[in-house]
Write a structure and sequence with these properties.
Chain A is α/β, with parallel strands linked by helices. Chain A has helices at residues 16-31, 36-47, 52-63, 65-73, 75-80, 126-129, 139-147, 149-155, 192-198, 201-205; strands at 102-107, 112-117, 165-170, 175-180. Chain A has a two-stranded parallel sheet with strand order 1-4. In chain A, α3 (52-63) packs across α4, α3 (52-63) crosses α9 and α7 crosses α8 (149-155). Chain B is built from three helices and five strands. Classes of the chains: A alpha/beta, B mainly beta.
């Protein structure tokens, strides 16, 4: 029998990256690039963000064809109706290099499925979707999704027929993306609240499709390493 | 000789209340390509910084949308906002990027955005 793994070591100290962040932050404050209050203000703003406004946007677009047209044409303007002002909600009032103010809403059809990745780093529409999940930032997802999209989607439990075009959106410049999935069958007559519930974060990234009764993200597939590290 | 003055906040002042890339609207001049044009991605040198993925270099693509005007990443990374260019959303056939992509899924595509300077007409 394979030798038993020891439990992972407890991490109760800051990592080197955290030390680096603190050092750079303190230097920036000392130099006067921003103040400690600015930093606190920004951090607190980031913690208020989540995927609910984007789910609301999709639900509204399903119910109102005019709103859907607006969302696809001008995502920033459509975001205002779900309480997200891409320019003025942010404490900086103009965006940051990580959060530029251009949202594109990618409309799926029965023959076209979008899925979003940032192969260069981890660009993510944070003002409307919150912080990205850990797997979205891993090299594993970023490098494999453009090359083997169907295999990666299958690992997320999404297998698409051959006649559906899979379009990988590589978010490499100033646009940020959410997916507007196809409204699933079995949701006829639903209210906006009911519809918004089934639009999960994974549906908005494009690695899942909404299903009636499914209101949470699936757990990520975790497979044992082929050559595991021996402690 | 006086010390040259460089306003480190010029970008912030320009974008505040308007947004980035919206603050560069109208500065790039006429667009060289239109929706539906066939283009090829140039393989330009990128010694310091670029956001043009290596996998797109030399590949043919189709312009899907003119998205916004902005300085190219190669300039903006050095705080040079003097020459905004048009950005295009271009669509690649997976088969053109990865020759061994399975024929069964020949419809599959990749879409990404690139500044005008990286595109040449095909």
């Amino acid at each position: 029998m394979a030798e038993k793994h020891k439990p992972a070591p407890m991490v109760d100290e800051v990592s080197e990256f955290e030390v680096l962040e603190i050092a750079v932050r303190e230097l920036a404050i000392e130099k006067g690039l921003f103040t400690a209050e600015d930093h606190q203000h920004w951090t607190e703003y980031m913690h208020t963000l989540g995927p609910l406004p984007a789910a609301r946007l999709v639900a509204k677009a399903w119910l109102d064809p005019e709103y859907k047209k607006l969302a696809v044409k001008d995502g920033v303007k459509a975001s205002l109706d779900v309480g997200v002002d891409w320019v003025n909600s942010m404490p900086t009032k103009f965006g940051t290099p990580s959060d530029y103010c251009n949202l594109r809403v990618l409309e799926d059809t029965p023959k076209l499925k979008h899925v979003v990745v940032c192969t260069l780093c981890s660009c993510y529409p944070r003002p409307i979707l919150g912080q990205s999940p850990e797997w979205y930032r891993t090299p594993n997802y970023r490098r494999r999704l453009v090359r083997w999209p169907r295999q990666v989607l299958a690992e997320f439990g999404l297998q698409l027929p051959e006649d559906v075009e899979v379009r990988v959106e590589d978010s490499n410049q100033k646009s940020r993306f959410i997916v507007l999935p196809v409204r699933p069958e079995g949701t006829e007559g639903w209210t906006e609240d009911q519809l918004a519930e089934i639009v999960t974060r994974d549906c908005l990234i494009g690695v899942a499709v909404p299903r009636p009764g499914k209101t949470v993200n699936d757990p990520r597939p975790v497979r044992p390493a082929i050559n595991p590290y021996k402690h | 000789m006086s010390k040259p003055h460089f306003d480190r906040e010029h970008h912030v002042k320009k974008a505040t209340g308007i947004g980035d890339p919206q603050c560069f609207k109208g500065e790039a001049g006429p667009a060289k390509f239109k929706v539906g044009d066939k283009v090829r991605i140039k393989d330009l040198p990128d010694i310091f910084y670029s956001r043009t993925q290596v996998y797109t270099r030399g590949a043919p693509a189709t312009v899907a949308e003119l998205v916004y005007e902005s300085p190219a990443a190669e300039d903006e990374s050095w705080d040079n906002t003097d020459n905004p260019v048009w950005f295009y959303s271009v669509v690649f056939k997976q088969k053109d990027l990865w020759p061994d992509y399975p024929d069964t899924f020949a419809n599959d595509t990749v879409e990404t955005e690139l500044p005008e300077r990286w595109l040449e007409p095909l």
